[in-house]
Amino acid sequence: MSTRLVVVSAGLSNPSSTRVLADLLTRQAVEALAAHDEVDVEVIELRPLARALADRLVTGFPADELARALDTVRSADALVAVTPVFSASYSGLFKMFFDVMEPGLLEGKPVLMGATAGTARHSLVLEHAMRPLFSYLRAVPVPTAVFAATEDFGSDAAGSLDARAERASRELASMLGATSRLAAEETPRDTFTDPVPFEEMLGRL
């Protein structure tokens, strides 16, 4: 059994700093998760889905490529979600993708959040915009969110960014481990294929 990690990147350019951060978080997450399980990674770039997202909001029906992206998220064990910052919040493209999801689609899924912007003045977007969004959607945001300004991608600051990404990834792996244990504990016992021994029933009296 493997862990299915889905990466949502809302970068608008190609290449983009948003995708660079998404790739860094993904590498760190795979490394943290690989100690416990195999990891399958699938990346959803929102830029090619922009027209399909607009059509979905207007018509109510998702195009095939958007429907496949939503199904990919539905099957995920965890998400890495990264957005550029515009006007002190996540991008409209990023928000549209989560606006078209059916209720409950993200419920209980751990989410490692990331954001990029030109300066560190926008770093609070992770706490005042992204964390409330995912909490509202009943996802489980990882405690450490990772923000990267332009200067964070320089050689002098790369170590700090790597350290934050590593910490967030360890937290994601820990949350997934706890989720797996709870799921195993909550699985009801099939008394037909796994009957309770008579001695155990007597012991409960």
UniProtKB/TrEMBL annotation:
Pfam families for the chain = FMN_red (PF03358)
Q: Could you tell me which residue ranges the NADPH-dependent FMN reductase-like domain spans? A: 4-151
* Superkingdom of this protein's organism: Bacteria
UniProt signal peptide: none
Alphabetically ordered keywords of this record: Flavoprotein, FMN, Oxidoreductase
Molecular-function annotations in GO: oxidoreductase activity
Which Gene3D superfamilies does the UniProt entry name for this protein? Answer: 3.40.50.360
* InterPro entries listed in its UniProt record: CE1759_FMN_reduct, Flavoprotein-like_sf, FMN_Rdtase-like_dom, NAD(P)H-dep_FMN_reductase
Name this protein carries in UniProt: NADPH-dependent FMN reductase
The source organism is Nocardioides jishulii
